[in-house]
Design goal:
alpha+beta
Amino acid sequence: EIKYPMIGMPSEQLKFGVYDVSKNKTIYLDITDFTNERYLTNPTWSPDSKTIYIQVMNREQKALNLNTYDAVTGKYLSTLLTEENDKFLEPNMPLIFLDDDRFIYTTDNRDGYYNLYIYSLKTKQLERLTKVNADVEYFAHDQKYVYYYSSEISPAERHFFRVSINSGKITRLTYAEGWHTCQLSSDKRYFSDNYSSLNVPRVVAVGSTDGRFYREVFRADDPSSDYNYAPIELGTLKSADGKYDNHYRLIKPLDFDSTKQYPLILYVYGGPHTQLIRNTFQAQLRRWEMYMAQRGYVVFVMDNRGTPNHGAEYARAIHRQCGVVEMQDQMVGINWLMSQSWIDNDRIGVHGWSYGGFMTISLMTTYPDIFKVGVAGGPVIDWKWYEVMYGERYMETPNTNPEGFEAVSLINKAKDLKGKLLICQGLIDNVVLYQHSLNFLDACITHNIPVDYFIYPRAEHNVMGKDRVHLMQKVTDYFNDYLK
């Protein structure tokens, strides 16, 4: 048994305790903001251990107070700053203290992107440190500089930078295209750089943090050179609103012949916090995609609005209507592919898991004349049955957003299903509960809609181990039986 408060239900009432080892005693911080069903996020100790900083967020996740508390008595001391957003807030990073009375604060709520800010306890002022129109991620700091990753070159790439704390001058430290992961020397004078890109398996280099020195020291061979892999293409298509570049990867079948027509499989996730397309070696390839391309399918994967690394407006486009703009963006890709002479428009399939399972069934029921075959794993069917924090952040509640819940519920769309659909479900899934898929089955029975269903009795949300081998063979067989 687990506690699983769903959207709109009573939720946890959190306390924050501090245990004093010498006194064998626990005190609780005097947190009174909002209602008792608040969220306590990113707790941070002050360097002298006398103060605890907590980002206190209301249950609606639209308002936040950065508060300080006495670590010994638990007494509330002050509110340093507040955040409000009429869609939602996502405070993902704790505070990072510098070597004086200042700390680094991260938010995407002030200038449209996750950027780094410096707050001075002396002046009570907050100043933007990374003045870039891109999402950034804190990495490290010393007395003069803050080191960070940034998506400013491309949302599909990650590069390493440093910025002067005092002057704000930015120095770019990595230049080769791709996704970079770095480490700093203990004195912060040098860094190692481990990166890859679409056709570059792995490179290790060393450089100086002043940007004057950079040298490659290792370049890996292609580990798939002896395998029968089809080429992988990276590209972009405009989002349905025309504002953004959505990144995709595309694999055409082995021995591709543009005069022939091939079946198409869309692999989709589409939800928050998951970026499927990165300019890494083979572009985040899932080996099953190549397996299917080797067997005569075109395989297409694309990130859509709502996924990370494109800024706040892009991420918040899904608010109150999960699945709507995501499908609009995915259909830009599908329509582009359908315009190609080498795609058989009568053989288009879709597969995804979790949020991707929700997207799979959403696409099949919203565009029933396009998607002929689908495999949905652990799908969200109706958001009112999802857990309280994630669900209310993006969808609010049936009381505040009844039209949104009604519009995206797949219970209401079961009657529109035309294609062949297989739903796979872990019986002990504690993320997307069993009742989602069971209720969809019930709706299909009500409307006399045929649907296939397979249970993994020992599996939780992500089917793993030997079950995974069975699952992927079953997914493959389903497309081979009904799409190929």
